[in-house]
Amino acid sequence: MKHTAKKILCTLLVMVMCLTVAPLSGFVDFGITASALADSGSCGENVTYTYDSSTGELVISGTGAMTNYISPYSGPGSPFYYSDIKSIVIEDGVTSIGNWAFVNCRSLASIIIPDSVTSIGNFVFLDCRSLASIIIPDSVTSIGVGAFEYCTSLENVTIPDSVTSIGGYAFDCCENLASVTIPDSVTTIGDSAFRCCENLASVTIPDSVTSIGDEAFCCCESLQSITIPDSVTSIGDEAFRGCTSLESVTIGDSVTSIGDDAFRHCASLTDVYYGGTEEQWNSIVGNECLTGATIHSHTHSYTSTVTKAASCTEAGVRTYTCSCGDSYTEAIPATGHDFDGTKCKNCSYDKADDCSCNCHKSGFMGFIWKIILFFNKLFKTNKTCACGIAHY
Description:
Layout: H1 2-20, E1 40-44, E2 47-52, E3 57-62, E4 64-65, E5 87-90, E6 94-97, E7 110-112, E8 119-120, E9 133-135, E10 142-143, E11 156-158, E12 165-166, E13 179-181, E14 188-189, E15 202-204, E16 211-212, E17 225-228, E18 234-235, E19 248-251, E20 257-258, E21 271-274, H2 278-283, E22 294-297, E23 302-308, E24 316-322, E25 327-332, E26 339-340, E27 343-344, H3 363-378
Parallel strand pairs: 3-5, 4-6, 5-7, 6-8, 8-10, 9-11, 10-12, 12-14, 13-15, 14-16, 16-18, 17-19, 18-20, 19-21, 21-22
Antiparallel strand pairs: 1-2, 2-3, 23-24, 24-25, 26-27
């Protein structure tokens, strides 16, 4: 009864969203049209824009946050709704891209986001169907609800390590999105975050993620396998429902709940690898949705490979992989320099290069010092520079 009530509530919620946010459904159009975008105007307390209608380029400049607008179906809001903007350049100094800013800008093909931006608001690029790629800078910490929903042409997204939260519906119905690497700064994958990404064939979920929301990867029809790391404790309702190509799933032993219909309509699913015991598996609520698959309960056995060798100054990476697909990495400490005199034997570093004394420099003073040092060496005096490095 509880689950039935929840499903009814969810259905009603979706219906309300379709009425209040028409582009979410892709089918509803209330005939809203935008007037021609002015050549310039304000879009924040200290943020302005200029628009070149001949090229379709919008430039946003200033300092601080853009305005957080409301849905175009709730009243007047962003001046950019339904406009013919083709490209956007946000200049350094702007700190956020406001909610609902560029809804239904279907000609928008490119956008430049500076390092000053820390947040991408809710439904910012909803239904921007020409946007094929976007680079999110390292300064951004949050991607809002529905931020790229119905960006049907979106193929490439770089999510930096600075992002800690990906809102629900963030990439919902990004039909051309083929692969996603979620950075290890993210702790939660929101409800419907990647729902209906039909071409999504590869997903990497890091050890930082603790929960996977309802319908997070629902109807990702190209997804063949998924590894859910040991950090995850819950898998939401219908999280992978309708992933019709899904063949194998690896589930960490920290998962304590698998939601209703989490793997429903996954007819190709044959193997589930579970890191815990049979008793633990039987205690997981909702695991009946996986009874059609063979459950492999085992202890991980890892083999290690150096995937990045350590250098004198940079740490390397060693990757441990289990036959079930589970993996983790550890850092290999930098080796440090091995000096022969002032020069490292293993790289091009020379300690003398960092000394500011003239005895280690070229030019006229360096020439004079070489003469002085010749006599120092001849008479075996003053062998060492003030920095502690040998003169010769």
